[in-house]
Design goal:
By secondary structure, the chain is an alpha/beta fold. The protein is built from ten helices and 15 strands. Strand 1, helix 1 and strand 2 form a beta-alpha-beta unit. Helix 4 runs parallel beside helix 5, helix 5 runs antiparallel to helix 10 and helix 8 crosses helix 10. Keywords: Oxidoreductase. InterPro entries: Gfo/Idh/MocA-like_OxRdtase_N (IPR000683), Gfo/Idh/MocA_oxidrdct_glycsds (IPR050463), GFO_IDH_MocA-like_dom (IPR055170), NAD(P)-bd_dom_sf (IPR036291). GO terms for molecular function: nucleotide binding; oxidoreductase activity.
Length: 333
């Protein structure tokens, strides 16, 4: 049984990750929060035995095999490196860090320590995206030409705060949502982005110069071009993902979500066919793969390298929006 420590008493851990760890045979033994009262209350509410206020106290616990990091983004680097050096496996929220140098340092520390490192990109675990990837690999739409992702949602009140007003913590929609688009596109297309163009918007929610919406296009190595629209401000939009090829199109709806829902249609010369989806909890799929990786069986569903790619793409989108120029995606891998 893998025993986990939580670095950050977060909403995502409470709503998704604690349950996923337990459902896949793991145990959460301690949580770290710099606010002692919050940490104690969080531990009690989530049936966690331990609560500490200092990362050294968490990492010195010999019972802990792995940590899940879900603090604000500017803290990830130092916490992940400290965990790796303490011999703990690391599953870190996206984006891995605020700079590529920091993300590379995290991956290097994990490699040096011989521990598993993963990025919590949940969307590649969705049955919809896996079915789309499989259909493309099987030649169901011919040669992919273009893709479209619409991932503009409304950021609920309990998730607002630093995402809207803290540039120093990596706030803004690009580092929060566009990283997911880029990772999901890489996974579904089995292709890497090479260039980005984009424009951002501040529609009334973003503060301190932070964008709350972005539109843009990514060009991939194969020549595929992919349009994306991300936002915090759209209360009534649906999400979707499309891939169009020489012989057909894949049309997915309501799939850019944490929940195991949504549909995928294959449209070709023979008409429309709904793909059968084996819907499962996305986070349980991720944790099962991570536990297997710890046991030496495979790799995390999203590796540290995948996290570097998504960060590099998001940073290129941000630079393209700022400069108005097409910007290369350069992960440095």
């Amino acid at each position: 049984m893998t025993k986990w420590g939580l670095i950050g008493a977060s909403t995502i851990a409470k709503e998704w990750m604690i349950g996923a760890i337990r459902a896949t045979g793991g145990e959460v033994v301690s949580v770290m929060s710099t606010d002692a009262a919050r940490g104690k209350s969080y531990a009690e509410a989530n049936d966690i035995a331990g609560s500490v206020t200092d990362i050294d106290a968490l990492l010195s616990d010999r019972d802990i095999d792995a940590v899940y990091i879900s603090t604000t983004n500017e803290l990830h680097r130092d916490q992940a490196i400290a965990a790796a050096r303490a011999g703990k496996h690391v599953l870190c929220e996206k984006p891995l860090a605020l700079t590529l140098d920091d993300a590379h340092a995290m991956a290097h520390a994990a490699q040096e320590a011989g521990v598993v490192m993963g990025t919590n990109h949940h969307l590649r675990n969705a049955a919809s995206h896996r079915a789309m990837r499989d259909a493309i690999k099987a030649g169901k739409i011919g040669r992919p030409l273009a893709a479209r992702v619409f991932h503009a949602v409304y950021l609920p009140a309990h998730l607002q705060g630093w995402r809207l007003d803290r540039p120093d913590a990596g706030g803004g929609v690009i580092l929060d949502i566009t990283v997911h688009d880029s990772d999901t596109l890489r996974f579904v297309l089995d292709d890497d982005p090479v260039e980005a163009v984009a424009m951002t918007q501040t529609g009334g929610m973003g503060r301190s110069g932070l964008e709350d919406a972005v539109m843009g296009v990514l060009r991939f190595k194969s020549g595929v071009i992919a349009q994306f629209h991300d936002g915090f401000t759209t209360k009534h939009a649906e999400t979707g993902f499309e891939v169009h090829g020489t012989d057909g199109s894949l049309i997915a709806r309501n799939v850019m979500t944490q929940r195991p829902v949504g549909t995928v249609l294959l449209r070709d010369a023979g008409g429309e066919h709904e793909l059968k989806l084996d819907q499962r909890n996305l986070y349980e799929t991720a944790l099962a793969a991570f536990h297997d990786a710890i046991a030496g069986k495979g790799v995390p569903s999203a590796t540290g390298e995948d996290g570097i790619w998504s960060l590099a793409t998001a940073l290129a989108v941000a630079k393209a929006a700022k400069t108005g120029a097409a910007t290369p995606v350069e992960p440095g891998l």
